[in-house]
Amino acid sequence: MKAEFEIPDDLLYSEEHEWLRRDEENPDEGTIGITDFAQDGVGDVVYLDLPSEGDRVTAGESCGEIESAKTVSDLYAPVDGEVIAVNGELEDQPELVNDSPYGDGWMIRVRMADASQLDDLLEAAAYRTLLEEH
Amino acid sequence: MTEDGGSGAGRRLRQLALRDRHEALGARFAPFSGWDMPLQYQGIVGEHHAVRQGVGVFDVSHLGRARLEGSQAARLLRSVTTFDVNRLAVGKAHYSLYCNESGGIEDDVFIYRLAGERWLVVHNASNADQDFGRLRSVSGDMASEITAETVMLAVQGPDAMALLGSVLGDDVARLDLRSCVELDWEGGTVTFARTGYTGEDGGECMVGVAHAAALWDALIEGGASPAGLGARDTLRLEAALPLYGNDIDAATIPYEAGLGFAITLDDGASFTGRDALVQARERPLVRRLAHLAARGRGVLRAGYAVHPPDGGEPVARLTSGSFSPSLRLGIGMAYLPVELAKTGGRFEVDVRGRMLPVEVVRRPFYRKSRE
Question: What global pTM score does this model have?
Fold first, then answer.
Protein backbone atom coordinates (compact mmCIF):
# COMPACT_ATOMS: atom_id res chain seq x y z
CA MET A 1 0.00 0.00 0.00
CA LYS A 2 1.73 3.14 -1.19
CA ALA A 3 -0.42 6.08 -0.25
CA GLU A 4 -2.09 6.72 3.07
CA PHE A 5 -5.81 6.21 2.63
CA GLU A 6 -8.50 7.69 4.77
CA ILE A 7 -10.46 5.07 6.74
CA PRO A 8 -13.00 6.73 9.07
CA ASP A 9 -13.48 4.90 12.35
CA ASP A 10 -17.26 5.22 12.42
CA LEU A 11 -17.96 3.22 9.24
CA LEU A 12 -18.20 -0.45 8.34
CA TYR A 13 -16.39 -1.86 5.32
CA SER A 14 -16.76 -4.70 2.85
CA GLU A 15 -13.90 -6.68 1.40
CA GLU A 16 -14.93 -5.27 -1.99
CA HIS A 17 -14.10 -1.77 -0.69
CA GLU A 18 -17.55 -0.37 -0.07
CA TRP A 19 -18.34 1.47 3.12
CA LEU A 20 -21.62 1.60 5.04
CA ARG A 21 -22.65 4.28 7.51
CA ARG A 22 -25.45 3.18 9.77
CA ASP A 23 -28.05 5.84 10.41
CA GLU A 24 -28.18 6.92 14.05
CA GLU A 25 -31.90 7.65 14.13
CA ASN A 26 -33.02 4.81 11.87
CA PRO A 27 -30.64 1.99 12.64
CA ASP A 28 -32.06 -0.24 9.92
CA GLU A 29 -30.94 2.31 7.33
CA GLY A 30 -27.46 2.79 5.98
CA THR A 31 -25.61 4.94 3.47
CA ILE A 32 -23.22 3.23 1.04
CA GLY A 33 -20.28 4.40 -1.02
CA ILE A 34 -16.82 3.26 -2.06
CA THR A 35 -13.71 3.77 0.02
CA ASP A 36 -10.85 6.18 -0.49
CA PHE A 37 -8.73 3.19 -1.54
CA ALA A 38 -11.34 2.14 -4.10
CA GLN A 39 -11.75 5.58 -5.66
CA ASP A 40 -7.99 5.90 -5.90
CA GLY A 41 -7.76 2.56 -7.62
CA VAL A 42 -10.44 3.14 -10.24
CA GLY A 43 -9.22 6.66 -10.99
CA ASP A 44 -11.31 9.54 -12.29
CA VAL A 45 -14.96 8.50 -12.09
CA VAL A 46 -16.84 9.69 -15.16
CA TYR A 47 -20.22 7.97 -14.91
CA LEU A 48 -22.24 5.92 -12.44
CA ASP A 49 -24.99 3.46 -13.19
CA LEU A 50 -26.70 3.21 -9.79
CA PRO A 51 -29.84 1.31 -8.82
CA SER A 52 -33.12 3.19 -8.51
CA GLU A 53 -35.20 3.92 -5.45
CA GLY A 54 -37.24 0.85 -4.63
CA ASP A 55 -34.75 -1.59 -6.13
CA ARG A 56 -33.71 -4.52 -3.99
CA VAL A 57 -30.03 -5.21 -3.53
CA THR A 58 -28.37 -8.39 -2.31
CA ALA A 59 -25.24 -8.62 -0.20
CA GLY A 60 -22.20 -9.51 -2.24
CA GLU A 61 -23.95 -8.95 -5.57
CA SER A 62 -23.40 -6.16 -8.03
CA CYS A 63 -25.99 -3.40 -7.77
CA GLY A 64 -24.37 -0.80 -9.98
CA GLU A 65 -21.42 0.16 -12.11
CA ILE A 66 -18.71 2.70 -11.62
CA GLU A 67 -17.18 3.89 -14.88
CA SER A 68 -13.83 5.60 -14.66
CA ALA A 69 -11.74 7.04 -17.44
CA LYS A 70 -9.84 3.80 -17.70
CA THR A 71 -12.16 1.01 -16.59
CA VAL A 72 -15.54 -0.12 -15.34
CA SER A 73 -16.03 -1.62 -11.89
CA ASP A 74 -18.97 -3.12 -10.06
CA LEU A 75 -20.59 -1.60 -7.02
CA TYR A 76 -21.33 -4.50 -4.68
CA ALA A 77 -24.08 -4.23 -2.11
CA PRO A 78 -22.61 -4.86 1.35
CA VAL A 79 -26.01 -5.92 2.75
CA ASP A 80 -29.46 -7.03 1.60
CA GLY A 81 -32.01 -4.26 1.43
CA GLU A 82 -34.17 -1.83 -0.47
CA VAL A 83 -32.78 1.31 -2.02
CA ILE A 84 -34.48 4.32 -0.40
CA ALA A 85 -32.32 7.12 -1.83
CA VAL A 86 -29.81 7.62 -4.62
CA ASN A 87 -27.26 10.44 -4.76
CA GLY A 88 -28.54 12.45 -7.72
CA GLU A 89 -25.62 14.88 -7.49
CA LEU A 90 -23.38 12.22 -8.98
CA GLU A 91 -25.23 12.41 -12.27
CA ASP A 92 -23.63 15.73 -13.10
CA GLN A 93 -20.66 15.52 -10.76
CA PRO A 94 -19.35 11.95 -10.75
CA GLU A 95 -15.99 13.36 -9.67
CA LEU A 96 -17.46 13.80 -6.17
CA VAL A 97 -16.69 10.10 -5.70
CA ASN A 98 -12.99 10.95 -6.06
CA ASP A 99 -13.08 14.24 -4.22
CA SER A 100 -15.17 13.15 -1.24
CA PRO A 101 -15.65 9.36 -1.16
CA TYR A 102 -17.10 9.37 2.38
CA GLY A 103 -19.09 12.58 2.05
CA ASP A 104 -20.67 14.11 -1.04
CA GLY A 105 -19.60 11.07 -3.04
CA TRP A 106 -22.00 8.70 -1.26
CA MET A 107 -23.97 6.54 -3.68
CA ILE A 108 -27.08 4.93 -2.26
CA ARG A 109 -29.06 4.66 0.95
CA VAL A 110 -30.69 1.35 1.80
CA ARG A 111 -33.21 0.01 4.31
CA MET A 112 -31.54 -3.14 5.47
CA ALA A 113 -33.47 -6.40 5.40
CA ASP A 114 -31.41 -7.96 8.14
CA ALA A 115 -29.21 -5.76 10.32
CA SER A 116 -27.37 -8.81 11.61
CA GLN A 117 -25.56 -8.85 8.25
CA LEU A 118 -23.59 -5.88 9.55
CA ASP A 119 -21.66 -8.35 11.67
CA ASP A 120 -20.16 -9.71 8.46
CA LEU A 121 -18.64 -6.32 7.61
CA LEU A 122 -15.25 -5.10 8.75
CA GLU A 123 -14.52 -2.46 11.37
CA ALA A 124 -12.07 0.27 10.37
CA ALA A 125 -9.11 -1.48 12.00
CA ALA A 126 -9.81 -4.73 10.20
CA TYR A 127 -10.25 -2.92 6.89
CA ARG A 128 -6.94 -1.14 7.46
CA THR A 129 -5.31 -4.53 7.97
CA LEU A 130 -6.90 -5.74 4.74
CA LEU A 131 -5.39 -2.83 2.84
CA GLU A 132 -1.99 -3.31 4.40
CA GLU A 133 -1.98 -6.86 3.13
CA HIS A 134 -2.62 -5.53 -0.37
CA MET B 1 -6.10 1.98 -22.10
CA THR B 2 -7.38 -1.23 -23.51
CA GLU B 3 -6.50 -4.79 -22.64
CA ASP B 4 -4.23 -4.63 -25.64
CA GLY B 5 -1.75 -2.92 -23.37
CA GLY B 6 -1.03 -5.91 -21.19
CA SER B 7 0.99 -7.83 -23.70
CA GLY B 8 4.19 -7.67 -21.66
CA ALA B 9 3.25 -10.73 -19.63
CA GLY B 10 6.10 -13.12 -19.04
CA ARG B 11 8.61 -10.74 -20.54
CA ARG B 12 10.72 -8.20 -18.71
CA LEU B 13 9.23 -4.79 -19.25
CA ARG B 14 11.42 -2.13 -20.79
CA GLN B 15 11.91 0.91 -18.61
CA LEU B 16 11.88 4.52 -19.72
CA ALA B 17 15.11 6.50 -19.39
CA LEU B 18 13.16 9.19 -17.51
CA ARG B 19 11.42 6.79 -15.14
CA ASP B 20 12.68 8.64 -12.06
CA ARG B 21 11.17 11.88 -13.36
CA HIS B 22 7.79 10.17 -13.79
CA GLU B 23 7.97 8.57 -10.36
CA ALA B 24 8.77 11.93 -8.78
CA LEU B 25 5.60 13.33 -10.34
CA GLY B 26 3.48 10.54 -8.90
CA ALA B 27 3.07 8.47 -12.06
CA ARG B 28 1.25 5.16 -11.97
CA PHE B 29 2.72 2.70 -14.38
CA ALA B 30 1.09 0.03 -16.51
CA PRO B 31 2.49 -2.41 -19.05
CA PHE B 32 1.97 -1.37 -22.65
CA SER B 33 3.51 -3.16 -25.63
CA GLY B 34 6.39 -4.47 -23.55
CA TRP B 35 7.11 -1.17 -21.81
CA ASP B 36 6.35 -0.04 -18.29
CA MET B 37 4.60 3.24 -19.10
CA PRO B 38 3.07 6.08 -17.08
CA LEU B 39 -0.68 5.50 -17.30
CA GLN B 40 -1.50 8.64 -15.34
CA TYR B 41 -0.04 11.12 -12.89
CA GLN B 42 -2.77 13.02 -11.03
CA GLY B 43 -5.68 11.66 -13.07
CA ILE B 44 -6.66 10.94 -16.65
CA VAL B 45 -9.45 13.52 -16.87
CA GLY B 46 -7.36 16.34 -15.45
CA GLU B 47 -4.47 15.51 -17.79
CA HIS B 48 -6.85 15.37 -20.73
CA HIS B 49 -8.18 18.86 -19.96
CA ALA B 50 -4.66 20.17 -19.40
CA VAL B 51 -3.82 19.20 -22.98
CA ARG B 52 -7.08 20.60 -24.40
CA GLN B 53 -6.81 23.88 -22.50
CA GLY B 54 -3.10 24.45 -21.90
CA VAL B 55 -0.15 22.21 -22.56
CA GLY B 56 0.78 18.67 -21.60
CA VAL B 57 3.91 16.59 -22.07
CA PHE B 58 3.90 12.84 -22.74
CA ASP B 59 6.92 10.57 -22.64
CA VAL B 60 6.35 8.47 -25.76
CA SER B 61 9.79 6.89 -25.83
CA HIS B 62 8.17 3.48 -26.25
CA LEU B 63 7.56 4.36 -29.90
CA GLY B 64 10.07 2.62 -32.15
CA ARG B 65 12.49 5.01 -33.80
CA ALA B 66 14.63 4.11 -36.77
CA ARG B 67 17.04 6.22 -38.77
CA LEU B 68 17.61 5.52 -42.41
CA GLU B 69 20.52 7.20 -44.10
CA GLY B 70 22.37 6.77 -47.36
CA SER B 71 21.99 7.06 -51.08
CA GLN B 72 18.80 5.42 -52.36
CA ALA B 73 17.21 5.71 -48.90
CA ALA B 74 14.07 7.27 -50.39
CA ARG B 75 13.75 4.54 -52.99
CA LEU B 76 14.18 1.80 -50.40
CA LEU B 77 11.70 3.41 -48.03
CA ARG B 78 9.25 3.75 -50.88
CA SER B 79 9.46 0.02 -51.56
CA VAL B 80 8.00 -0.89 -48.16
CA THR B 81 5.69 2.02 -47.32
CA THR B 82 2.48 3.25 -48.91
CA PHE B 83 3.09 7.00 -49.18
CA ASP B 84 5.41 8.33 -51.87
CA VAL B 85 8.18 9.72 -49.71
CA ASN B 86 9.75 11.38 -52.76
CA ARG B 87 6.99 13.96 -52.39
CA LEU B 88 8.34 15.03 -49.05
CA ALA B 89 10.56 18.09 -49.11
CA VAL B 90 13.44 18.19 -46.67
CA GLY B 91 12.01 19.19 -43.31
CA LYS B 92 8.61 17.64 -43.92
CA ALA B 93 6.87 14.64 -42.37
CA HIS B 94 3.93 12.48 -43.43
CA TYR B 95 1.76 9.69 -42.11
CA SER B 96 2.25 6.37 -43.90
CA LEU B 97 1.65 2.64 -43.61
CA TYR B 98 3.40 -0.65 -43.96
CA CYS B 99 1.03 -3.04 -45.70
CA ASN B 100 1.20 -6.76 -46.36
CA GLU B 101 0.72 -8.35 -49.78
CA SER B 102 -3.04 -8.51 -49.12
CA GLY B 103 -3.17 -4.77 -48.53
CA GLY B 104 -3.72 -5.21 -44.79
CA ILE B 105 -2.06 -2.74 -42.44
CA GLU B 106 1.06 -4.07 -40.74
CA ASP B 107 1.67 -0.77 -38.97
CA ASP B 108 0.93 2.92 -39.24
CA VAL B 109 3.99 5.15 -39.04
CA PHE B 110 5.28 8.68 -39.36
CA ILE B 111 8.13 9.36 -41.78
CA TYR B 112 10.31 12.46 -41.43
CA ARG B 113 12.70 13.73 -44.09
CA LEU B 114 15.47 15.30 -42.05
CA ALA B 115 17.89 15.80 -44.94
CA GLY B 116 18.14 14.77 -48.57
CA GLU B 117 18.74 11.10 -47.83
CA ARG B 118 18.34 11.07 -44.06
CA TRP B 119 15.04 9.87 -42.66
CA LEU B 120 13.43 9.17 -39.33
CA VAL B 121 10.66 6.58 -39.15
CA VAL B 122 8.51 6.32 -36.01
CA HIS B 123 6.77 2.99 -35.39
CA ASN B 124 4.20 1.75 -32.92
CA ALA B 125 5.84 0.08 -29.96
CA SER B 126 3.87 -3.11 -30.51
CA ASN B 127 5.28 -3.50 -34.04
CA ALA B 128 8.67 -1.88 -33.63
CA ASP B 129 10.75 -5.03 -33.93
CA GLN B 130 9.08 -6.33 -37.06
CA ASP B 131 9.00 -2.86 -38.59
CA PHE B 132 12.68 -2.41 -38.06
CA GLY B 133 13.24 -5.86 -39.53
CA ARG B 134 11.29 -4.75 -42.57
CA LEU B 135 13.49 -1.68 -43.00
CA ARG B 136 16.63 -3.73 -42.46
CA SER B 137 15.56 -6.30 -45.04
CA VAL B 138 15.57 -3.68 -47.79
CA SER B 139 18.25 -1.31 -46.60
CA GLY B 140 20.68 -3.35 -44.50
CA ASP B 141 23.09 -1.25 -42.45
CA MET B 142 21.57 1.99 -43.72
CA ALA B 143 18.85 1.49 -41.11
CA SER B 144 19.70 1.94 -37.45
CA GLU B 145 17.42 1.57 -34.46
CA ILE B 146 17.75 4.53 -32.14
CA THR B 147 14.92 3.80 -29.71
CA ALA B 148 17.13 2.98 -26.75
CA GLU B 149 19.53 5.87 -27.20
CA THR B 150 16.86 8.55 -27.52
CA VAL B 151 13.85 9.85 -25.65
CA MET B 152 10.73 11.14 -27.37
CA LEU B 153 8.49 13.72 -25.74
CA ALA B 154 5.17 14.88 -27.18
CA VAL B 155 4.24 18.42 -26.16
CA GLN B 156 0.60 19.06 -27.00
CA GLY B 157 -2.05 21.69 -26.43
CA PRO B 158 -3.00 25.22 -27.45
CA ASP B 159 -0.05 26.60 -25.45
CA ALA B 160 2.42 23.98 -26.70
CA MET B 161 4.04 25.94 -29.51
CA ALA B 162 4.63 28.96 -27.27
CA LEU B 163 6.28 26.76 -24.68
CA LEU B 164 8.34 24.93 -27.29
CA GLY B 165 9.41 28.23 -28.78
CA SER B 166 10.62 29.46 -25.42
CA VAL B 167 12.46 26.23 -24.63
CA LEU B 168 13.83 25.27 -28.05
CA GLY B 169 13.97 28.62 -29.81
CA ASP B 170 12.13 30.66 -32.37
CA ASP B 171 12.96 28.34 -35.27
CA VAL B 172 10.64 25.82 -33.74
CA ALA B 173 7.84 28.29 -33.11
CA ARG B 174 7.85 29.27 -36.80
CA LEU B 175 7.55 25.73 -38.17
CA ASP B 176 4.49 24.79 -40.20
CA LEU B 177 2.35 21.77 -39.45
CA ARG B 178 4.12 18.46 -40.13
CA SER B 179 7.44 20.20 -40.55
CA CYS B 180 10.54 18.98 -38.81
CA VAL B 181 13.93 20.36 -37.94
CA GLU B 182 17.11 19.25 -36.20
CA LEU B 183 18.55 21.78 -33.82
CA ASP B 184 21.33 22.14 -31.30
CA TRP B 185 20.07 22.43 -27.79
CA GLU B 186 22.16 22.71 -24.64
CA GLY B 187 25.01 20.82 -26.26
CA GLY B 188 22.84 18.06 -27.68
CA THR B 189 20.64 17.59 -30.73
CA VAL B 190 16.86 17.79 -30.66
CA THR B 191 14.86 16.53 -33.61
CA PHE B 192 11.58 18.40 -33.52
CA ALA B 193 8.44 17.94 -35.59
CA ARG B 194 5.13 19.75 -35.44
CA THR B 195 3.16 16.52 -35.17
CA GLY B 196 1.16 14.74 -32.53
CA TYR B 197 -1.58 12.32 -31.61
CA THR B 198 -4.06 14.40 -29.64
CA GLY B 199 -5.89 16.61 -32.12
CA GLU B 200 -4.16 19.65 -30.62
CA ASP B 201 -1.37 21.82 -31.88
CA GLY B 202 2.08 21.01 -30.62
CA GLY B 203 5.04 18.91 -31.49
CA GLU B 204 7.20 15.94 -30.74
CA CYS B 205 10.83 16.16 -29.66
CA MET B 206 13.42 13.44 -29.97
CA VAL B 207 16.58 13.94 -27.94
CA GLY B 208 19.56 11.85 -26.86
CA VAL B 209 19.22 10.19 -23.47
CA ALA B 210 21.98 12.37 -22.03
CA HIS B 211 19.95 15.54 -22.59
CA ALA B 212 16.49 14.11 -22.06
CA ALA B 213 16.09 14.91 -18.38
CA ALA B 214 17.08 18.53 -18.97
CA LEU B 215 14.52 18.86 -21.74
CA TRP B 216 11.80 17.21 -19.64
CA ASP B 217 12.60 19.49 -16.70
CA ALA B 218 12.54 22.59 -18.91
CA LEU B 219 9.13 21.63 -20.28
CA ILE B 220 7.69 20.91 -16.83
CA GLU B 221 9.18 24.11 -15.40
CA GLY B 222 7.75 25.97 -18.36
CA GLY B 223 4.27 24.88 -17.37
CA ALA B 224 3.58 21.61 -19.17
CA SER B 225 1.44 19.15 -17.22
CA PRO B 226 2.76 15.61 -17.30
CA ALA B 227 0.23 13.39 -19.08
CA GLY B 228 0.11 9.61 -19.34
CA LEU B 229 -1.11 6.99 -21.75
CA GLY B 230 -4.62 7.15 -20.30
CA ALA B 231 -5.08 10.75 -21.42
CA ARG B 232 -3.26 10.04 -24.67
CA ASP B 233 -5.92 7.45 -25.43
CA THR B 234 -8.93 9.67 -24.65
CA LEU B 235 -7.37 12.54 -26.61
CA ARG B 236 -6.58 10.51 -29.71
CA LEU B 237 -10.02 8.92 -29.65
CA GLU B 238 -11.73 12.33 -29.49
CA ALA B 239 -9.56 13.32 -32.46
CA ALA B 240 -10.69 10.07 -34.20
CA LEU B 241 -7.09 8.94 -34.70
CA PRO B 242 -6.86 5.16 -35.03
CA LEU B 243 -4.82 3.05 -32.63
CA TYR B 244 -2.96 0.14 -34.16
CA GLY B 245 -4.11 -3.15 -32.67
CA ASN B 246 -7.52 -1.69 -31.82
CA ASP B 247 -8.90 0.17 -34.83
CA ILE B 248 -6.56 -1.07 -37.53
CA ASP B 249 -4.62 -4.29 -37.91
CA ALA B 250 -3.24 -6.71 -40.49
CA ALA B 251 -6.78 -7.52 -41.69
CA THR B 252 -7.73 -3.86 -42.21
CA ILE B 253 -7.71 -2.44 -45.71
CA PRO B 254 -6.60 1.19 -45.29
CA TYR B 255 -9.54 2.60 -47.25
CA GLU B 256 -11.96 1.05 -44.76
CA ALA B 257 -10.32 3.07 -42.03
CA GLY B 258 -10.33 6.30 -44.01
CA LEU B 259 -6.56 6.17 -44.46
CA GLY B 260 -6.43 6.61 -48.22
CA PHE B 261 -4.46 9.82 -47.70
CA ALA B 262 -1.53 7.67 -46.56
CA ILE B 263 -1.35 5.85 -49.90
CA THR B 264 0.15 6.97 -53.20
CA LEU B 265 -0.71 4.83 -56.21
CA ASP B 266 -0.40 7.30 -59.08
CA ASP B 267 3.40 7.42 -59.06
CA GLY B 268 3.33 3.85 -60.31
CA ALA B 269 6.03 2.82 -57.85
CA SER B 270 6.02 -0.73 -56.61
CA PHE B 271 5.67 -1.28 -52.86
CA THR B 272 4.51 -4.12 -50.67
CA GLY B 273 0.73 -4.40 -50.93
CA ARG B 274 0.37 -2.16 -53.97
CA ASP B 275 -1.42 -4.69 -56.17
CA ALA B 276 -3.95 -5.51 -53.48
CA LEU B 277 -4.53 -1.81 -52.77
CA VAL B 278 -5.07 -1.06 -56.46
CA GLN B 279 -7.73 -3.77 -56.53
CA ALA B 280 -9.26 -2.61 -53.25
CA ARG B 281 -9.50 0.92 -54.64
CA GLU B 282 -11.60 -0.34 -57.54
CA ARG B 283 -14.00 -2.39 -55.45
CA PRO B 284 -16.78 -0.81 -53.42
CA LEU B 285 -16.04 -0.87 -49.71
CA VAL B 286 -17.83 -3.52 -47.67
CA ARG B 287 -17.34 -1.88 -44.28
CA ARG B 288 -16.17 1.45 -43.03
CA LEU B 289 -14.82 2.69 -39.73
CA ALA B 290 -17.68 4.67 -38.24
CA HIS B 291 -17.60 7.09 -35.35
CA LEU B 292 -20.27 6.55 -32.74
CA ALA B 293 -21.41 8.99 -30.08
CA ALA B 294 -23.69 7.91 -27.23
CA ARG B 295 -27.14 9.46 -27.20
CA GLY B 296 -27.74 8.45 -23.63
CA ARG B 297 -25.70 8.25 -20.47
CA GLY B 298 -23.02 5.63 -20.40
CA VAL B 299 -19.50 4.78 -21.45
CA LEU B 300 -18.53 2.89 -24.60
CA ARG B 301 -15.65 0.41 -24.41
CA ALA B 302 -13.71 -1.61 -26.96
CA GLY B 303 -15.34 -4.97 -27.63
CA TYR B 304 -18.94 -3.95 -26.92
CA ALA B 305 -21.42 -5.20 -29.53
CA VAL B 306 -23.19 -2.74 -31.84
CA HIS B 307 -26.80 -3.69 -32.64
CA PRO B 308 -29.34 -2.19 -35.02
CA PRO B 309 -31.89 -0.02 -33.20
CA ASP B 310 -34.57 -2.70 -33.45
CA GLY B 311 -32.46 -4.92 -31.21
CA GLY B 312 -31.45 -7.37 -33.93
CA GLU B 313 -28.22 -9.33 -34.12
CA PRO B 314 -25.03 -7.31 -33.67
CA VAL B 315 -23.53 -5.80 -36.82
CA ALA B 316 -20.13 -4.91 -35.34
CA ARG B 317 -18.03 -4.59 -32.22
CA LEU B 318 -16.43 -1.40 -30.99
CA THR B 319 -12.73 -1.30 -31.82
CA SER B 320 -12.18 1.56 -29.36
CA GLY B 321 -14.40 3.23 -26.84
CA SER B 322 -14.14 5.61 -23.97
CA PHE B 323 -15.75 8.42 -22.11
CA SER B 324 -14.96 11.70 -23.82
CA PRO B 325 -13.89 14.17 -21.12
CA SER B 326 -14.27 17.10 -23.53
CA LEU B 327 -17.77 16.20 -24.75
CA ARG B 328 -18.83 14.44 -21.56
CA LEU B 329 -20.33 11.48 -23.36
CA GLY B 330 -19.43 8.01 -24.50
CA ILE B 331 -17.64 7.75 -27.85
CA GLY B 332 -16.32 4.85 -29.86
CA MET B 333 -15.45 3.47 -33.26
CA ALA B 334 -16.64 0.38 -35.11
CA TYR B 335 -16.53 -1.06 -38.61
CA LEU B 336 -20.11 -0.91 -39.84
CA PRO B 337 -21.42 -2.34 -43.12
CA VAL B 338 -20.95 0.54 -45.52
CA GLU B 339 -24.67 0.91 -46.21
CA LEU B 340 -25.22 1.49 -42.49
CA ALA B 341 -22.23 3.71 -41.82
CA LYS B 342 -24.07 6.92 -42.63
CA THR B 343 -23.93 10.04 -40.51
CA GLY B 344 -27.02 10.19 -38.34
CA GLY B 345 -27.50 6.43 -38.40
CA ARG B 346 -28.84 5.05 -35.13
CA PHE B 347 -27.62 1.94 -33.33
CA GLU B 348 -27.57 0.48 -29.87
CA VAL B 349 -24.49 -0.64 -28.01
CA ASP B 350 -24.72 -3.43 -25.48
CA VAL B 351 -23.14 -1.86 -22.40
CA ARG B 352 -22.87 -4.90 -20.17
CA GLY B 353 -26.48 -5.89 -20.76
CA ARG B 354 -27.97 -2.39 -21.03
CA MET B 355 -28.72 -1.08 -24.53
CA LEU B 356 -27.28 2.41 -24.99
CA PRO B 357 -28.44 4.37 -28.07
CA VAL B 358 -25.63 5.72 -30.24
CA GLU B 359 -25.47 7.75 -33.42
CA VAL B 360 -22.98 7.79 -36.27
CA VAL B 361 -21.27 11.18 -36.27
CA ARG B 362 -18.69 12.86 -38.47
CA ARG B 363 -15.07 12.63 -37.46
CA PRO B 364 -13.42 13.95 -35.45
CA PHE B 365 -15.53 13.82 -32.31
CA TYR B 366 -13.70 16.86 -31.05
CA ARG B 367 -12.09 19.58 -33.13
CA LYS B 368 -9.88 22.19 -31.58
CA SER B 369 -11.25 25.70 -31.76
CA ARG B 370 -9.75 27.83 -34.51
CA GLU B 371 -8.42 31.16 -33.40
Answer: 0.93
